[in-house]
Design goal:
Two copies of one chain form a homodimer. The first copy, chain A, contains 14 helices and eight strands. By secondary structure, chain A is of the alpha/beta class. The first copy, chain A, has two domains: about 5-175, NAD(P)-binding Rossmann-like Domain (Rossmann fold, 3-Layer(aba) Sandwich); about 185-305, Orthogonal Bundle (N-(1-d-carboxylethyl)-l-norvaline Dehydrogenase, domain 2), CATH 1.10.1040.
Chain lengths: ~300, ~300
């Protein structure tokens, strides 16, 4: 294995940073992790928080492979992978990468966890813009297998290949996104459904909790097993997706037309009046969500699919 | 239990009819099912096909509670529930219900499995329009827990209540949809994501198989456990969905704007050129989908969630 005994520098020790640190430690038994953050209590904070992310793992052994530092130069000095999840701020990231480039080894992989600032923008001040690629997780990464790998037009094929290879070797699902686009792919898909959900609730078809129940009892479990194309391809029987579209296409188009009308009429635009009502309904329905329970169930679902 | 020893008449023995028959037989141990269809080989057909739907059940015992008939009047004569999945044709359904109304007991529940013809339209020729309600499954109903219960404005509260109660007593997830709307709720949500999926593939962001991988490794398993509102509510931390929208709302709106542009520019309209390419890609990726394997995995996912 090419990725054994490697050193991972985690830049930014927020929730995503700790979750990624835990993922490397749990899935890559000989790696070491250096956690960089500017907070003065970094070591105590890490010792208190990291164990929550080390699900079903030997917490003591895993934490024995972590060190902390408040010097970014020190964190990246001998790193094989530098994984950044600092503030979602283009200036911060541009500055950080141009410094990291000077301090890290020549062949270290540079990954940003950004959900929206493309590698082409982050790498603008770098000497060698071929080195940076976005690796966008679906939160939390220590549970969810997806990693959207989004290169800039300058990212080298070698960097892309080694990035995909690393994540595959850890049993994750890295997916190469071919063009830098707003929101990448996962959020674009999820937000499209979320907009329709907001529209249907705003129109009074169904409440927030019932809408969630619809999803949890239908497309959630279905799409955990087979994504939308595979599902509708199966739904078309022998003729596949083509037959599905021949038979159901009229209904699909009617639904799309109705959605367009409703979204326009209902003003489903962020910050408008519908939002307040939906936030209130959601708060009433759920209060504080037990994310530990959610993560355990999600893990069980993923295990059920992969059996 | 109010629903023990009941008689269910299944009108139309296609895939959905057989799946519903199997569901009643498996989940309601003392019920009997009468299968009505016009096909002359109905008995042999049922005996050959029904066992495929009786997953993890005593096939012999279940089939011992099924009878077949080519007379609709006979099928409904002493039924407690009449469940219709005939052709998706408003004329057929209007005629069928006005006949069933004459032949079935006064207090029988009348359910249509239609995916698009509302109860208000189907019941137009009925003497008593309060009796009919749509019970729309997510296919196949013997596996998927969701049932969208969609009354017309005339449907009586008693019919709605007994319908919900029956499905809850069988451990399913009936969800009351408050207004008759195009596509009801589940398909509206799924088709909204499907449109975005088609748009992103048509733009070359990602291929069909990789898009499915994105969904299977992220929102599929997540939404199997917690629907979109609950998920984003958790994502907002202590402030819930309101905080989520405060923090991420800008990105959400940017994604919605990008979607609108792409859907318009790409002409994501059913039957246009993009469709052919996506159908071909899907066929190449999957060939014939093993739905039995898919259903077994889906069942395991549902069990993992409910544990």
């Amino acid at each position: 294995m090419a990725f054994q005994n490697i050193k991972v520098a985690i830049i930014g020790a927020g929730t995503i940073g700790l979750s990624f640190a835990a993922l490397h430690l749990m899935k890559n038994p000989n790696c070491t992790v250096t956690l960089y953050d500017t907070r003065p209590d970094l070591k105590e904070y890490m010792e208190a928080k990291l164990p929550q992310f080390l699900v079903d793992a030997d917490v003591k052994e895993c934490t024995s492979r972590v060190s902390t530092t408040v010097s970014m130069a020190e964190a990246v000095a001998d790193a094989n992978i530098v994984q950044e999840q600092g503030p979602e701020n283009a200036c911060f990231k541009r500055k950080a990468w141009s410094r990291i480039e000077l301090d890290a080894p020549r062949d270290a992989l540079f990954w940003s966890s950004t959900s929206g600032i493309p590698a082409s923008e982050q790498s603008m001040d770098m000497e060698d813009q071929t080195r940076l690629v976005v690796v966008h997780p679906y939160n939390p990464p220590h549970i969810m297998p997806l990693l959207e790998v989004v290169p800039s037009p300058s990212t080298s094929q070698g960097v892309i290949d080694r990035t995909l290879e690393y994540w595959r070797s850890l049993g994750r699902v890295p997916v190469l996104i071919r063009k830098e686009c707003t929101g990448f792919v996962a959020n674009r898909l999820a937000f499209a459904l979320f907009r329709e959900a907001c529209s249907l609730v705003a129109q009074g078809m169904v409440g927030v909790e019932d809408l969630d129940a619809v999803v949890q009892a239908s497309m959630g479990p279905r799409w955990a097993v087979a994504g939308p194309f595979k599902s509708y391809h199966a739904g078309g029987g022998e003729g596949g997706l083509g037959s599905f579209m021949d038979k159901i296409g009229g209904t699909v188009q009617e639904c799309w037309n109705a959605s367009d009308e409703d979204v326009k009429a209902g003003g489903i635009v962020v910050g408008k009046k519908w939002q307040e009502d939906i936030c209130r309904q959601t708060e009433e329905a759920y209060g504080v969500v037990d994310t530990a329970e959610r993560d355990l169930k999600t893990k069980a679902v993923l295990e059920a699919v992969s059996r």
